[in-house]
Amino acid sequence: MFQVIARIDDFGKLAWLALMVLGFIVFWPIGLAILAYIIWSGRMGCSPRYSDMQDWRNRAAERWERKRERWERHMQRWGHYRGGLAQTGNRAFDEYREEALRKLEEEANDFRAFLERLRMAKDRAEFDEYMRGRRSPPPAGPAEGPRGPAAQPQG
After folding, report:
1. Could you tell me which residue, 39 or 116, shows the higher pLDDT?
2. pLDDT band at residue 136 using 50, 70 and 90 as cut-offs
3. Which end of the chain is more exposed for a tag (fewer CB within 10 A), N or C?
4. Are 64 and 34 contacting, i.e. CB atoms less than 8 angstroms apart?
5. Distance (Å, rounded) from C-alpha 42 to C-alpha 146?
6. Cα(129)–Cα(136) distance, rounded to whole angstroms?
7. Cβ(19)–Cβ(38) under 8 Å?
8. How far out from the chain centre does Cα 127 lie?
9. What is the pTM of this model?
10. 3-state secondary structure (DSSP) of residue 85
11. For residues 35 and 22, what is the distance between their CA atoms, to the nearest angstrom?
């Protein structure tokens, strides 16, 4: 069996493709089995190997970086610069705008801090509830029955 596979490998990828197509023509499950073997064994170079995935991630990161740089150039071309807006030439308006943006940023930071404190308080309350549940004695066991000791029949 290994000799047959080695022999087909000597002919290259086209031989595997031809064998697969022939298998589909003769009896479709044979062609499907050959296709599965080709993919599984990596004969066509399409199996996900770590280095291939790492190369793909590196290429994707490079593409993303190029897009980001292109976007920044675009924003600079249209009068926006990193960190704010371009000057309009009217100093009074520019000062007003900077002051308004600074106030908005402060409010946003205060709101984020408030949300963080709120989350922390909620987490603390949940943790305290959990700890109280652990420290309290376990509920009544099955020896007392479902209605407690007073419900026992007297006879």
Report:
1. 116
2. confident
3. C
4. no
5. 64
6. 11
7. no
8. 28
9. 0.34
10. strand
11. 11
